[in-house]
Inverse folding.
C-alpha cells in the first residue's frame, strides 16, 4: 500500500504531495490523518522553514471525496499555506 501523502525535504522546504492521482487527489479521512502526522513531525523539525502542499499527477482537486460515509470533524489540521 502506498502512502497517501508523500514528504520530501530539500533546502529547508518540506514538499508534501497528495498521492491519489487516480482520484484527482481528493481529500479523505486517511489523507487528513497523514497530513496531520506530517504536520506534527514538521513542527519538531527546525531545519524546515516552509511547507509546500501539492498534488501528484495531472490535476489536484480541492474537494473532499464523498464516495463513502465518513466523519471528518474529528480530524484537525493547522492552517497550511499553499504555494
Amino acid at each position: 500500500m502506498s502512502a497517501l501523502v508523500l514528504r520530501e525535504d530539500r533546502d529547508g522546504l518540506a514538499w508534501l504531495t497528495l498521492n491519489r492521482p487516480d482520484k484527482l487527489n481528493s481529500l479523505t479521512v486517511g489523507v487528513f490523518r497523514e497530513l496531520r502526522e506530517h504536520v506534527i513531525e514538521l513542527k519538531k523539525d527546525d531545519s524546515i522553514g516552509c511547507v509546500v502542499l501539492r498534488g501528484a499527477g495531472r490535476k489536484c482537486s480541492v474537494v473532499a471525496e464523498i464516495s463513502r460515509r465518513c466523519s471528518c470533524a474529528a480530524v484537525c489540521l493547522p492552517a497550511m499555506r499553499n504555494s
